[in-house]
Design a protein that fits this description.
The structure holds 3 protein chains of 3 kinds.
Chain A (H helix, E strand, L loop, with lengths): L1 E9 L4 H14 L3 E6 L9 E9 L12 E6 L3 H6 L5 E10 L15 E5 L1 H7 L3 E2 L2 E2 L2 H12 L4 H11 L3 H16 L1 E3 L2 H4 L1
Parallel strand pairs in A: 1-4, 4-5, 5-6
Antiparallel strand pairs in A: 1-3, 2-3, 6-9, 7-8
Helix pairs in contact in A: 1-4, 1-5, 4-6, 5-6
Chain B lengths: L12 E2 L15 E5 L9 H5 L5 E2 L8 E2 L9 H5 L5 E5 L3
Chain C lengths: L2 E6 H11 L4 E4 L6 H13 L5 E4 L3 H13 L4 E5 L1 H6 L1 H9 L5 E6 L13 H4 L7 E4 L3 H15 L8 E6 L7 E6 L2 H7 L19 E2 L5 H33 L7 E4 L6 E5 L1 H16 L4 E6 L1 E3 L3 H8 L4 E6 L9 H12 L6 E5 L9 H12 L2
Parallel strand pairs in C: 2-3, 2-4, 4-5, 5-7, 6-7, 11-12, 11-14, 14-15
Antiparallel strand pairs in C: 1-8, 6-13, 10-12
Helix pairs in contact in C: 1-2, 1-7, 3-5, 7-9, 10-13
Classes of the chains: A alpha/beta, B alpha+beta, C alpha/beta.
Chain lengths: 193, 92, 378
């Protein structure tokens, strides 16, 4: 088992936290995971990357993930802005936050196994907002668990509740579970397109 | 040059002693004097004395200045929180 | 109770200090070190650790306070990086001469200008002549464990010198990975409370003394030579500390060095910290491709493992030293040290320096592979 993951979001959307929560959830299942971040001169709104390496063995690599087996995109506009799909391996899974509008579905996406979740609507339904911005990162972890089949969604929820005790953790755990249930996997999109 | 001893722990601490310049008390122009009735025995002067020339035997007594080695820098007078140290011109 | 968690290198260092039962923490924040002292400050604030946190106005004061606390008999800790490390430099040298076994985490970061916050080893290597023992952590577990080992070595009666533990900025400091957080009782068994030599700043009221007074050349030389003797003593102390750590915790990070794939190797790569582990991961790939490459992680740069390195170097025909640092006008700093070592031991294996990763430039396996292939068939 060896996976490399790229998370791409905008500053403030919590991509870094998502990669760390994922690694902690995997650790509960005795799966070895690194969570790597690139810190630069980020501001709220600028593209931000976080990475995971996931394996059944301890990992000794210490560089950033260059090409990935899984790419998690926090909003469709980041596809063109960052050109992140150029870093997808063949047979990569791409997980995207989208309400499913046709203009969100970049033509490049159809090359990959695709998982779609409307994380923004989930956050709004749960009234999960920080400084007026919907919190989507925990929903995206739920989408990851569904798309990849690991970690267990219960592990994700436990780690989230530990990270934010009280109501905030409760809401975020709900968001991840709701996303887990609502994520649609488009396995055969290649043949459709 | 004398042989250097092979020791792994020589510490940079010093006690008042007769050095190249003899007893340093003779350098003094001003002499600090502790006013016993004002002293609150906080030991600030003891702590700050750069020559370790202020001694005490317990926290219940007024510290004593070792005039053999006190150079008269008057740091003690500066740090005393209750102005219990005055200075006097030597010889007066 | 022993637990496993996915934590950053900085949190691992904070745990190392906590498990070592540090009594005084004096530090000033600087990226990428800040979260170490934030974590410790949080624990002190919540009463989770029985330590005094001294907020200071600069790194110079941080080391002064840590040194004062250590001289008074407390187990003192601080952490810094890069520019802060340089600002502290006067007191770094002083702490060694004063024989105060402070332990400091140094999160390696490039020096300005140009301004840069990412990983580079030049900062800590600048202090290799100060009298501090220097450990380099290659992953987060080693960062935690090296803090504990550093106190064991620094406070040993045969040593009594300060020790610094290095970890790569961001590469380890902000990268989370699984770490075993040891049982406190086991750490207590490994690291007894600090029992300072007689000179603590708590002399009898009747026998005050001054600390760090001027000494004339003949006496000064004796004091400075004693640092060299203590450094020499520390070689065996470090080996014993690593061995006993392995006995109690079952983890081997190496002692002064750690070897990987060195059996029947024709070429060796030498490197520090996470770069060494990156080289180890790359060597695993290269071995599968038929290259007989081994890796020597230089875990301690002071005292420098001269005998260990010379012995290994003598068995191979090529050496590459990867330096994430540079001594302008000379060479990679580690490469320079290794070349001098080989000369001293009459080993004539050619050494190629590869300076990589300056200012946080990512060191990819491809870069290491290319360097190896270039030198391997020369």
């Amino acid at each position: 088992m060896y996976y490399e993951v790229i998370w791409v979001g905008r500053g403030g959307q919590g991509a870094v936290t998502a990669s760390r929560i994922l690694a902690k959830a995997l650790n509960r299942e005795k799966i070895w995971a690194q969570a790597i971040v690139f810190f630069g001169a980020e501001r709220r709104g600028a593209p931000v990357y976080a990475y995971n390496r996931i394996s059944d063995q301890p990992i000794k690599y210490h560089h950033f993930v260059t090409d990935a087996d899984v790419i998690v995109i926090f909003e469709p506009s980041l596809i063109k802005l960052t050109n992140v799909l150029s870093r997808a391996r063949d047979n990569a899974t791409v997980i995207i936050n989208s309400a499913g509008r046709s203009e969100d579905m970049d033509s490049e996406l159809h090359k990959y196994r695709l998982a779609v979740v409307d994380a923004t609507s989930i956050a709004l339904q749960l009234n999960l907002l920080v400084a007026g911005i919907p919190v989507i990162n925990t929903a995206m972890i739920g989408a990851f668990a569904k798309a990849m089949g690991f970690p267990l969604i219960d592990s994700v929820k436990e780690v989230i509740k530990e990270a934010w005790p009280g109501k905030m953790g409760e809401l975020n755990a709900q968001a991840s579970e709701k996303a887990y249930r609502e994520t649609r996997i488009l396995e055969n999109i290649k043949s459709v397109s | 040059m004398s042989e250097i001893p092979d020791n792994h722990l020589i510490l940079p601490i010093s006690k008042p002693t007769k050095g190249a310049g003899g007893k340093t008390g003779s350098w003094r122009v001003f002499r600090p004097v502790i006013l016993e009735d004002k002293c609150i025995k906080c030991m600030m002067c003891w702590m700050y004395c750069p020559e370790a020339a202020i001694e005490a035997h317990s926290r219940n007594e007024v510290p004593k200045i070792n005039y053999d080695y006190c150079k008269g820098c008057l740091v003690c007078k500066e740090v005393c929180p209750v102005s219990a140290i005055k200075s006097e011109r030597e010889g007066e | 109770m022993e637990t496993y968690d996915v934590i950053t290198g900085n949190d691992a260092v904070a745990w190392g200090a906590r498990l070592s039962r540090v009594e005084v923490i004096a530090a000033y924040p600087i990226t990428p070190q800040t979260t170490i002292v934030e974590k410790l400050a949080e624990w002190v604030d919540k009463g989770e650790i029985d330590a005094r946190y001294i907020a200071v106005e600069s790194e110079h004061s941080a080391m002064s306070a840590a040194m004062g606390a250590s001289a008074a008999g407390a187990r003192a800790f601080t952490a810094t990086s890069s520019q802060g490390f340089l600002y502290m430099f006067e007191m770094i040298s002083w702490a060694a001469g004063a024989r105060t076994p402070v332990v400091m985490a140094v999160v390696n970061r490039a020096l300005g200008p140009p301004w840069n916050i990412w990983s580079e080893h030049t900062d800590a290597l600048m202090a290799r002549d100060t009298g501090w023992i220097q450990f380099w952590a290659s992953n987060n577990q080693e960062a935690l464990d090296s803090i504990i080992q550093a106190y064991r070595v620094a406070e040993d009666k045969k040593v009594i010198l300060p020790a610094m533990v290095m970890l790569g900025g961001f590469v380890l400091s902000h990268t989370a990975m699984p770490v075993r957080i040891h049982d406190q009782d086991k750490v207590d068994q490994y690291l007894p409370p600090y029992s300072p030599p007689h000179y603590v700043l708590n002399p009898k009221l009747s026998e005050p003394f001054a600390y760090g007074n001027i000494l004339f050349p003949w006496d000064y030389a004796k004091v400075r030579l004693s640092i060299q003797r203590a450094m020499e003593n520390s070689v065996d102390v470090i080996k014993k500390a690593a061995r006993e750590f392995q006995e109690i915790f079952g983890i081997w990070h190496g002692d002064l060095i750690k070897e990987a794939y060195t059996d029947n190797a024709e070429m060796l790569i030498f490197a520090l910290g996470a770069v060494a582990e990156q080289a180890e991961a790359t060597a695993e790939l290269l071995r599968k491709k038929g290259y007989k490459v081994g890796v020597v992680k230089v875990r301690v740069t002071r005292p420098f493992p001269k005998h260990e390195i010379a012995k290994l170097a003598n068995k191979v025909s090529r050496i590459i030293v990867i330096d994430r640092d540079i001594s302008f006008g000379w060479d990679g700093i580690l490469a320079g040290e290794i070349k001098a070592t080989l000369h001293e031991h009459n080993v004539d294996t050619p050494v190629t320096t590869k300076i990589m990763g300056i200012g946080g430039d990512d060191i990819l396996p491809d870069h290491i592979e290319k360097a190896v292939k270039e030198v391997y068939n020369k």
